[in-house]
């Protein structure tokens, strides 16, 4: 990659989100403080607004990640087209409650019981609704009804509405006045100023190069970039990435004013034509269709950085020795249960329990929850193709191994549990320091095809297999329960399509992928968190 020629360990202005880049501009510090204060003081209703690309979604996601799970229960709703019933079902689902009912009263009762239980346990429940400016009046009224769930002295749920400036106009409508009056904390997230923009650019360069500055931007270039972007992180990233490519092609170590101007001109071509003629002040309201990726400003772990240090400190790089020592320090049985239950949680399955006096095994715990454990080999890209939460086998000092649950993958990083050296998100390079391949994937044989032993049962299983192959377009023969050459060929064709070994045999990986591709089944995937984090 072109950025590697400068000595960067990763792309400093990547067009995908990377929460490991830590930066708090002045507006983001203020917004973060308002949100944290409102949640801790149980304000009830909170509104966060801001233009497209200012970093609202990244901020609330990071805030939720920083809230202690022992003290807070959190949920994030990001589908703005839900119906009132759909919203309530989604809220219950996010909190792990029954969400199958179509009876609003029953769903409300279930949610209320959960909120009361959490309140008695001393925990605060937080619900964030993103892109709230797209919600209908009817759905917002349902949000107000959810907020009615309270005791004489406590708000049982803290609701954060996040949206573009249009959210304010929506809430000011006469029919929503009851909801609008309940919002006690409001904050409008402003774009960064020039000083913060300069610090932001320098920060990303230093972080991507382990504290070094192999590339600089001239003051004139930074002024051009700020004038164009208006301080929006999304646009800053887009221009700087193009400028970095220009510096590479010209073999320069500094981005000049002219190079920044060329990068801006190139970026303008990707903006919708009707937006290009807008003055820069209006541009910030018109970049909703911009194809650029997000700014990775992110927030501090634990608490706010003092302002004077916000642009300089970065998370420490993962130490291989410390990471492996930390994994080895956890008792094997404790590690097994923790990692297994992290994957079961992704399946929304009850936690596995060890039997007193008997050592637990991975396969035994999987069977306990109706799951199948299949060992696989390969790198992260191979696991990404399987798109299923997995248990990574990590060799530790002194012999033996520990398990690490792999819960999400994106281009730059992975989500893991339990935390490794205090980190639940690692770069791919950090994971490669401790894991060299080998994993176990947990999956569910929804129709019990692999467990049919008797002849009649086997025939029924083959019929189900043939129907699944038909659904994915790999079989057009009769559904007769006979594992014929044509059926075997259909299995092999499906395997070739999914980049599996095309032997025509119905192994665990093949059947797992067949359920995923056939539709009608809803296993969790590794990409879910990644897609949700694709907007800021």
TrEMBL record:
Transmembrane ranges? 282-305
Keyword Kinase applies: no
The UniProt keyword set, sorted, is: Membrane, Transmembrane, Transmembrane helix
Q: By what name is this protein known?
A: ATPase AAA
Q: InterPro entries, from UniProt?
A: AAA+_ATPase, AAA_22, ExeA_AAA_ATPase_DNA-bind, P-loop_NTPase, Peptidase_C39, Peptidoglycan-bd-like, PGBD-like_sf, PGBDSf
The segment(s) forming the Peptidase C39 domain are 316-442
Tell me where on the tree of life, at the top rank, the source sits. Answer: Bacteria
Keyword field contains rRNA-binding? no
Among the Pfam families in the record, one is: AAA_22
């Amino acid at each position: 990659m072109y950025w590697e020629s400068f000595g960067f360990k990763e792309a400093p202005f990547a067009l995908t989100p990377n929460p490991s880049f830590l930066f708090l501009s002045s507006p983001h510090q203020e917004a973060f403080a308002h949100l944290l204060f409102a949640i801790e003081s149980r304000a009830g209703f909170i509104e966060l607004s801001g233009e497209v690309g200012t970093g609202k979604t990244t901020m609330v996601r990071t805030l939720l990640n920083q809230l202690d799970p022992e003290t807070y229960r959190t949920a994030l709703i990001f589908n703005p087209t839900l119906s009132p019933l759909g919203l309530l079902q989604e809220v219950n689902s996010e909190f792990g409650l029954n969400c199958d009912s179509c009876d609003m009263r029953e769903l409300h009762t279930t949610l209320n019981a959960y909120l009361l239980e959490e309140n008695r346990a001393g925990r605060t429940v937080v619900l964030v609704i993103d892109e709230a400016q797209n919600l209908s009046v009817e759905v917002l009224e349902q949000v107000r009804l959810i907020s009615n769930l309270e005791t004489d002295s406590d708000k049982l749920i803290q609701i954060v509405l996040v949206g573009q400036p249009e959210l304010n106009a929506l809430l000011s409508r006469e029919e929503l006045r009851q909801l609008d009056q309940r919002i006690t904390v409001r904050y409008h997230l402003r774009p960064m100023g020039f000083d913060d923009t300069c610090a932001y650019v320098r920060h990303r360069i230093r972080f991507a190069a382990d504290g070094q500055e192999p590339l600089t931007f001239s003051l004139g270039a930074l002024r051009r970039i700020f004038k164009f972007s208006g301080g929006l992180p999304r646009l800053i990233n887009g221009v700087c990435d193009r400028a970095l490519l220009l510096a590479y092609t010209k073999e320069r170590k500094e981005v000049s004013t002219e190079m920044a101007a060329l990068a801006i001109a190139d970026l303008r071509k990707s903006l919708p034509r009707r937006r290009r003629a807008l003055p820069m002040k209006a541009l910030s309201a018109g970049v909703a269709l911009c194809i650029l990726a997000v700014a990775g400003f992110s927030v501090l772990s634990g608490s706010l950085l003092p302002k004077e240090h916000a642009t300089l400190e970065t998370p420490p790089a993962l130490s291989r020795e410390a990471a492996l020592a930390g994994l080895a320090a956890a008792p094997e049985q404790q590690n097994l249960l923790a990692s297994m239950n992290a994957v079961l949680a992704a399946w929304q399955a009850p936690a596995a329990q060890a039997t007193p006096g008997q050592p637990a095994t991975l396969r035994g715990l999987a069977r306990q929850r109706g799951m199948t454990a299949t060992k696989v080999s390969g790198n992260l890209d191979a696991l990404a193709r399987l798109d299923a939460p997995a248990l990574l086998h990590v060799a530790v000092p002194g012999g033996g191994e520990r398990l690490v649950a792999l819960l999400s993958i994106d281009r730059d990083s992975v989500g893991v549990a339990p935390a490794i050296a205090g980190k639940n998100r690692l770069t791919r390079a950090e994971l490669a320091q401790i894991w060299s391949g080998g994993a176990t994937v947990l999956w569910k044989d929804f129709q019990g095809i692999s467990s049919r032993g008797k002849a009649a049962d086997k025939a029924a299983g083959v019929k189900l297999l043939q129907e699944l192959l038909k659904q994915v377009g790999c079989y057009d023969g009769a559904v007769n329960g006979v594992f014929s050459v044509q059926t075997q060929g259909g299995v092999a064709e499906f395997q070739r399509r999914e980049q599996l070994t095309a032997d025509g045999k119905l192994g665990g990986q093949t059947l797992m992928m067949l359920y995923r591709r056939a539709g009608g089944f809803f296993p969790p995937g590794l990409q879910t968190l990644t897609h949700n984090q694709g907007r800021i």
